[in-house]
Write a structure and sequence with these properties.
two-stranded parallel sheet; 11 helices; DEAD_box_RNA_helicases; ATP binding; 2 domains; nucleotide-binding
Length: 330
């Protein structure tokens, strides 16, 4: 629905009928009626619902000239009428397909080659043919020892997906003091819109309570919340009524808060791809942003591996008397 709202803003109130949502979970009969009545020129929806309505003959995709997949992850299409929408609209030879992904793992390369002819890779700094990949490159291995599955192309793709305006820091803290370190970090950087990432849903509520007790307006966001609750929290966060949003991986992909100026990793991301998705929540549209990873001393090797893989500098820091202080590397 976020994409629909943005398109409606561009079209203006008088042309809102020319874009139609086809998302799963909504009333299908009403969606089909809107298609018949308004004859929209832009359809935004989930693959399964688009496929269902197309197979039923209510959405004619043979004349579709442009198809865009905004969150490409390279999943294999399922069989039957609920197959991936890309297979439904691929019959027109001259159709242009646009696949958008924060990173370019092997599965995305495979999907691009199967859905398009001679695909081009458009990155922030260049446009080039999509080179073949002989084997699936794995993400960064964050455990000690070699990482035989890593691949240079994967590393470059992940690195180039990071906004160039970001500053990356890491701060040492004991496990029991990590949430308080978040508080000191927020005040030291004077951040007004903050996303805090933790790995486990059960930790979120406790972290929110601790931050609220110290005077920060904070809320949790995770998949166990109802649709209305999630929507309300996001609206308040975007309006600035909530300063700190504590979440798990749910918000790492697709969450668009243009004025977010700080991302804090209380728990380490599992690999470089997850780090890129988290970090990408800030520094958008050329704005400055900071990413602070809070870790224990035994976890510093993970930060060093991320630094090597991503090709960015992680500065060691601490928060003293309300200020961020850069520490010299030992």
């Amino acid at each position: 629905m976020q994409i629909v709202r943005e398109i409606e803003k561009l079209l203006g109130p008088e042309n809102k009928k020319f874009v139609q949502q086809l998302v799963g979970g909504a009333n299908r009969s009403r969606q089909e009626e809107a298609l018949r009545k308004n004859k929209p020129v832009i359809v935004v929806g989930t693959p399964r619902r688009i496929a269902e309505i197309s197979v039923a003959g209510k959405l004619h995709t043979h004349g579709c000239r442009y198809a865009s997949n905004s969150r490409t992850r390279g999943e294999e299409p399922s069989s039957g009428p609920a197959q991936n929408s890309e297979t439904v609209v691929k019959k027109r030879v001259e159709r242009q397909t646009i696949m958008v992904s924060a990173t370019v793992p092997f599965a995305v390369v495979q999907a691009a080659r199967s859905w398009g002819c001679e695909p081009m890779l458009v990155q922030a700094k260049k446009v080039s043919p999509l080179e073949p990949v002989s084997r699936p490159p794995g993400p960064v291995n964050l455990s000690p020892g070699p990482n035989p599955g890593s691949d240079l192309q994967q590393s470059d793709a992940v690195s180039e997906s990071l906004p160039p305006t970001l500053k990356h820091y890491y701060c040492l803290s004991r496990m029991q003091q990590k949430v308080d370190t978040v508080r000191r970090c927020v005040h030291a950087l004077d951040a007004k819109t903050v996303i805090v990432f933790m790995n486990h849903t059960r930790q979120l509520k406790d972290a929110v309570y601790k931050l609220q007790a110290r005077g920060l307006v904070a809320e949790e966001l995770h998949g166990d919340l109802g649709k209305l609750a999630r929507s309300t929290i996001l609206k308040k966060f975007k309006k600035g009524e909530i300063r700190v949003l504590v979440t798990n991986e749910l918000s790492a992909r697709g969450l668009d808060v243009s004025n977010c100026n700080l991302v804090v990793n209380v728990d380490l991301p599992t690999d470089s791809v997850h780090y890129a998705h988290r970090a990408g929540r800030t520094g958008r549209l050329g704005r400055k942003g900071s990413v602070v990873t809070i870790c224990e001393e035994s976890e510093v090797f993970v930060v060093k591996k991320l630094q090597r893989q991503l090709g960015v500098q992680f500065q060691s820091c601490e928060f003293v008397e309300g200020k961020l202080v850069i520490q010299e590397e030992k």
